[in-house]
Amino acid sequence: MRPIQAKDPSAAAPPPVPRLTAPAESSPRPNRPDEPNRPDEPNRPDEPNRPDEPNRPDEPNRPDEPSRPDEPTWPVRPDPAYGTQAPIGVSTPSGDAVDADVPGAVGRALEQVLTDRLARAGVLDALFAEELAGRVARFTREGGKRTRSQLLWWSMRACGGGDEMAVAATLRIGAALELLQTCALVHDDLMDGSALRRGRPTLHTDLRNHYAGAAPADRSARFGEAAAVLAGDLALAWADDAAAETPLDPATATTVRRVWSDMRTEMVAGQFLDLHGQLTMSRSQPQALRAAHLKSALYSVQRPLALGAALAGADGRTTRALCSAGRCVGMAFQLRDDLDDVFGDPLRTGKSCGDDIRNGKPTYLAALALARAEATADRPAMTVLERALGNEDLKPADLDEVRDVLVRTGARQAVETKIVRLSARGLRHFDGALPDTAAKARLRRLLTSATASRATDGGPPDPVRPTPAGPSEGSAAPGTRR
User: Fold this and answer.
1) 366 in Cβ contact with 283 (< 8 Å)
2) In sequence order, what are the residues at sequence separation of 6 or more whose Cβ sits closer than 8 angstroms to the Cβ of residue 435?
3) Which residue in 11, 126, 244, 248 has the fewest CB atoms around it within 10 Å?
């Protein structure tokens, strides 16, 4: 993709488009060019007083529109990098203060963004603000461990960033990542028909249940699905706004916008390949790895690391090494997620078990199990897998049979081994990229924990030990042809 060039603030530009803003404190309204001077704003002869709109010399709040305490009143200033607006007067914490609680600091930056967006939504329509925008905000506020924004932060810190502009920008981009994650999860849950997310009803399920008494069941279900599409779109719009309104110098802005743009397109491409694999019942191992690489590995690990490096002004060699580390660890992260979907503890994952099997997801785990069953002419294993994959009515006993086949064919152990090898390879790239600092150690721990097992039985059936890097079955780098 061709990078978007930052605009020269001195170049001629069209007049700014009016922005949605919450009602501000009273101030005199300037005369429009086509209106004569009217010192006391009397009613025009051809426009008598409306019953519901009395004369308001100083524009107080209307009785039917009370002031809303959640509407921000901070001033705004133009941002030279983007030609948009960004809050001023909001204090920026020091890098050391954020280090002590990164999720909390990202949460506070996120709250500033959400407060502003909810106020703007309220200007449009109260029902929209409460029922849709409010749900998007609540879903985002109740986010998980903020893993992506933590990777972003510690990448920036490990690359030597920490001045006031870098800190403020990283926290705001972190908030944008959390909103982008909301978009991805809401749409993913809808496409997969999932009922639970983070231990709570998914957004489309919540909307369906909320309006269950207002219409027949099929209509309320359809409403929930359609509204969830809009909720994901709204979260994406808010994420883009937050990223675009982040004050950055022109050179950094160009890099950040390119990475951000690539990341969004990669997510969509990976999701499409995932859906296409479900439709065609693809059991291709290379195709499964390609979809996982685009859908999750890049977005979950590699791109946050690249954004952090860009915000710190890291050189090309450092950025490339971090991206190589992120690519390997990101793929291991997705393979771990595939295993957790079948073997994970719902209390730890926040999701019901077996959704990938029920939806016929083209995961590497399933493709490998089928290939191994076919290679050994294990007809019972093939029968179990073919009957289970894509069966939305899969019972717990059926899922137990699938688990047994995944263990018996050695597919689970092979995926565990691949996770360990990918993680080790990624950490070798990482260790050679940066000098040893406390921030680097924190980032390394995050990368290591991203691939930890959340299995109900505590892990794989046998211990898996790292092995030297080198050509091995299924060990090609994600996204490359074998």
Assistant:
1) yes
2) none
3) 11
Count of H-run helices and E-run strands, the chain? 19, 4
Task: Specify the residue for token string 């999750």.
Answer: 296
Q: Which long-range contacts (CB under 8 A, 24 or more apart) does 120-128 make?
A: 120/20, 120/21, 120/22, 122/22, 122/68, 122/71, 123/20, 123/21, 123/22, 123/23, 124/20
Rounded Cα–Cα distance for residues 436 and 426 (Å): 16
10 Å CB burial of residue 119 (0-12, 13-18, 19+) is: buried
Answer whether 112's CB lies under 8 Å from 87's CB. Answer: yes
- Whether the Cβ atoms of residue 435 and residue 480 lie closer than 8 Å to each other: no
pLDDT in tens, 456-468: 665 554 443 333 3
Give how far Cα 35 sits from Cα of 55, 155, 221, Å.
18, 55, 51
Amino acid at 361: K
CB 154 within 8 A of CB 449: no
Taking alpha carbons only, the member of 192, 171, 132, 156 closest to residue 352 is 192
Spell out a b/e string for 132-171, using b for 16 or more CB atoms within 10 Å of the CB, else e. Answer: bbebbbebbeebeebbbbbbbbbbbbbbbbbeeebbbbbb
Each residue of 248-257: b (16+ CB within 10 Å) or e? beeebbbbbb
Query: Per-residue pLDDT tens for 190-207?
Result: 988 888 787 688 899 988
Dmax (CA) for the chain in angstroms is 92
pLDDT tier for residue 41 given thresholds of 50, 70 and 90? very low
Identify the bridge partners of residue 215 per DSSP, sorted by sequence position: none
What are 335's two structure tokens? 């393979």
Mean residue pLDDT of the chain comes to 80
Handedness of CA 244, 246, 248, 252 (dihedral sign): negative
Residue 116 to residue 113: CA distance in whole angstroms = 5
Q: Decide: helix, strand or coil at residue 157.
A: helix
User: What is the Cα–Cα distance from 282 to 304, expressed in whole angstroms?
Assistant: 30
